Amino acid sequence: MVMAGELIVSDVKIPSRCRLVLIAPPPGPDDAARLEAALSGGDIASLIIPRYDAGEEEFQTHADRLARLAQAQGVAAMVAGEPRIAARVGADGIHVEGSKSELADIIAKHQAKMMVGCGGGKSRDEALERGETQPDYIFFGRFGYDVKPQPHPRNLALGAWWAGMVRVPCIVMAGADITTVVEVAGTGAEFVAVSTAVFAPDADPARQVAEANRLLDRQAPPFQE
């Protein structure tokens, strides 16, 4: 995941402001088509693929399909919760939702070969505990819970606090209204996660990603060099 600073990678300009992270939709007959549409909409830093309630075989097939689509567009693919599946599908990293000890174990085993990010917990103390293990990022939010138009106030508060004092990058979950990416960017977070706002049944994924980037280009505070 490329961080602050305006870089050129493969002739693509990486914006020096808060960037998008997609949270993949659950496995379904049109999951790949919806992701392809979203990827066509503009700048995306990474894709996190949660397991939801899928069985292991179904999840591996789902993760393999979506990871390949993301990587073909230069988007990092993170598989949530399953180091073995992440390795099997050639993902760029693992997203861990668990205790500090579980996170530390996965970092020790896998961080030399792939990124390891984590959920941030529900409090400052929980976030700091996880941060001590030096993950590649910390995520404030819960998969599948971005059902209200606005982001959860606790996630915004934790993101603003973390971004102001810790060097480990953070991702903050936006709400179901795509315009809330600006609210998240205002916290100073390096990344804003979107899911329902892009993948809701009545949403146009390409248009929503394009709109998010337009809003961030115009209103997100620039990172300092």
Describe the fold and architecture:
This protein is of the alpha/beta class. It has one domain: Aldolase class I (TIM Barrel), CATH 3.20.20. The protein contains nine helices and ten strands. It has helices at 31-39, 56-72, 83-88, 100-110, 124-131, 153-165, 181-185, 196-199, 205-219; strands at residues 7-9, 12-14, 19-23, 46-49, 76-80, 93-96, 115-119, 137-140, 170-173, 191-194. The strands form two sheets. It has an eight-stranded parallel barrel with strand order 3-4-5-6-7-8-9-10, surrounded by five helices. It has a two-stranded antiparallel ribbon with strand order 1-2. The longest helix is centred in the N-terminal third of the chain and has 17 residues, at 56-72. It is globular and about 40 Å long. Mean pLDDT is 93; it is low at 1-10.
